[in-house]
Amino acid sequence: MLADMTQKRISVAPMIDWTTTDYRFFARLFNPHLYLYTEMISTSALIHGNTARLLRFDASERPLVLQLGGADPSEMAHCARLAQDYGFDEVNINVGCPSDRVQHNKIGACLMAEPDTVANLVQVMQAEVDIPVTVKHRIGIDDFDSYEFMRDFVDTVAEAGCRRFIVHARIAWLQGLSPIQNREIPPLRYEDVYRLKPDFPKLLIEINGGITTVDEVRTHLNHVDGVMLGRAGYQNPYVLAELNELWETPVPTRAEILAKLLPYLESQVENGEPLPSLARHYLGLFQGLPGARKWRQALSGKQHLTVDEIRQAGERTLGIIERMDTSN
Ligand SMILES: Cc1cc2nc3c(=O)[nH]c(=O)nc-3n(C[C@H](O)[C@H](O)[C@H](O)COP(=O)(O)O)c2cc1C
After folding, report:
1. Is residue 283 in some structural domain?
2. Does the beta carbon of 96 sit less than 6 angstroms from any atom of ligand 1?
């Protein structure tokens, strides 16, 4: 059965260093329906850093969610207000990141052990803004690994007014595993996320973790309200184009995507942005196709790069793909 996509949400996960405005502009070219997330931005960076630069985005990126890392209620409320004032559609609290750095500041996944703290954050933030305040979390941390622990966490946070929960279907082990290992080693437990839906039918439950194909997305949508793709949406972004099937909307070709990306790159160069550091976001455009390596080689490890060189690399790879198609 087809899911009613007016009730469902597909998103690309917040990913530090990856889901920058330059990636998100690109991601949007694949699919007009997706919710996009910023990288996690800490309250201290937003308050003491270059706020306007951290929060800049292209209008096409909307619907767009600002993910915040923080635990101080007044700072989080202030940053939620900034999110609303800058035009974000939603603000999300990071309760899933296991890195030592964030643990040290008592933000991220360690907050799962403090549901009242998270509930209080939701309450003060939601009192400050009209846009929804949502929470992204894990199914548990360390020895707090039972379904009941997560259910009680969700219950407490929902009481404070959070309606949407995005659940990375893995425990986070806060000692002994790096953030990268924490995205690989703890096993995925999709069933735990599914169980939240009948237990909290009025809440919106989204699932995340290890999802890479349209078929997998369809399967999850039979159980929950949304699916969030992380690494797959970055490393093989064309899957975002294929997801148009779910809405029965046209699937853009890679040539069309490239043609829209190039003028954006021109404008970024005019703004003084360094092309070599933007180009890393586009390496996955031809993932899995002949010529993909040539494309990656042309874009990576360069001190200097021009939009014309990117155009030529794209045309070369598109030519290789076309020749392969016609020779088959
Ligand atoms: C490079 C990278 C950076 C990440 N940064 C964040 C972050 O800023 N906030 C967050 O909640 N999760 C972060 N994550 C976790 C992802 O949002 C996602 O939960 C995780 O990758 C699992 O989804 P996937 O298997 O589809 O990649 C990051 C993941 C990666 C790969």
Report:
1. yes
2. yes
Q: What is the CATH number of the domain that holds 199?
A: 3.20.20.70
Amino acid occupying residue 66: L
- How does DSSP classify residue 131? S
234 and 265 housed in the same domain = no
Q: Which domain holds residue 156?
A: 9-247
| DSSP annotation of 182 | G
Beta-carbon contacts of 232 under 8 Å, excluding residues fewer than 6 positions away, are 211, 212, 213, 239
CATH of the domain at 293: 1.20.120.1460
Burial of 272 (0-12, 13-18, 19+ CB in 10 A): exposed
Q: Cβ atoms within 10 A of the Cβ of 4, count? A: 8
3-state secondary structure 25-73: HHHHHHCCCCEEEEEEEEHHHHHHCCHHHHCCCCHHHCCEEEEEECCCH
Residue 4 lies in a domain: no
**Ligand 1 centroid to 320 CA: how many Å?**
33
pLDDT tops 90 at residue 102: no
For the four alpha carbons of 68, 73, 79 and 82, in that order, the dihedral sign comes to positive
C-alpha 295/C-alpha 274 separation (Å) is 19
- Please measure the distance between the N-terminal and C-terminal CA atoms of the chain and give it in whole angstroms: 34
For the stretch 225-266, pLDDT in tens is: 999 999 999 999 999 999 999 999 999 999 999 999 999 999
Q: Mark which of 210, 226, 247 sits at the end of a domain.
A: 247
The alpha carbon of 151 is separated from its chain's Cα centroid by a whole number of angstroms, namely: 23
Are 160 and 25 within one domain? yes
Q: Domain for residue 108, yes or no?
A: yes
Span from the CA of 20 to the centroid of ligand 1 (angstroms): 13
Residues 239 and 277 grouped into a single domain:
no
Domain count, the chain: 2
**CA 180 to ligand 1: nearest atom:** 31
What pLDDT, in 10s, does the model give residues 133-164? 999 999 999 999 999 999 999 999 999 999 99
